Amino acid sequence: MADNTNTNENAKAKDEKAPKKSWFEGVKAEFGKIIWPAKDALARQTAAVIAVSVVVGLIITILDTFIQYGIDFLVKL
Question: CA 29 to CA 4: how far, in whole Å?
């Protein structure tokens, strides 16, 4: 029985919405907790993401080309 009354109280609490002002204050407080990276670390990480993306793109292109040649070879037989 205790779980049933607790569930009803939780349902009532969910129905009541917090004012938007307090929501924005909460968002602002959460943004204040974020640890932003330094510019040099951000630049290194961005360069790494771009480099890995280019390498993976090249690998996919090479594999696609070889697979296409193989399919073309099999179809022409």
Answer: 34
Burial state string for 11-41 with b = 16 or more CB within 10 A and e = fewer than 16: eeeeeeeeeeeeeeeeeeeeeeeeeeeeeee
pLDDT band at 3 (very low <50, low <70, confident <90, very high): low
The pTM of the full predicted model, rounded to 2 decimals, is 0.55
> Could you read off the pLDDT of 6-49 as tens digits, one per residue?
555 665 555 566 567 788 888 999 999 999 899 999 999 999 99
The 3-class secondary structure across the chain, one letter per residue, is CHHHHHHHHHHHHHHCCCCHHHHHHHHHHHHHHCCCCCHHHHHHHHHHHHHHHHHHHHHHHHHHHHHHHHHHHHHHC
